[in-house]
Amino acid sequence: MDNKNRALQAVSRIDDSTDLVDIMIGIEDYLDRNDIYAYKNWMNGELVDGPYIQPYWITATFKWPYREMPDPTGGTRLLTQGTKVRFFLDEENDPQLIKQPSDYEPGTHKPKIKKVKVWLVELMIPRRFIDSIDDEVMDLYDERADDINIASDAETEGATEENSVISNEPPTI
Description:
32% helix
């Protein structure tokens, strides 16, 4: 799925829930307490995925334009706090600006699409650092229960270890 669509889904998911807004505010406070915004370009990140609540982690993915990569030194500052930080180089589809008829896809009224490089930074923050959230709220969005249901559904449908696909590749967002 395209990064822009994922970003829209993430924002609409957060917009529908005041609890997820509180979690994002907690993430922002955590980053601010660690002075991440003092490092180059960290202030310019956009949420593209998350937040996802797990038993001990809160995961969110942010993006930056290719030429505005966030300073990796800021990420190392978070590593000392126990946060897992992963940088990915990815591409997203970006519609061209329409200036003339040749900028449309042939036979349509849709603009041509070009691939644009972006940096993705996935942050896995220990839940203990997002202290403004009640455990009851965290458990409400805990994805572990969903994962258990998906696993039992897969077993019901006959999924086995032999016919499962396992990949060590980073997620494509």
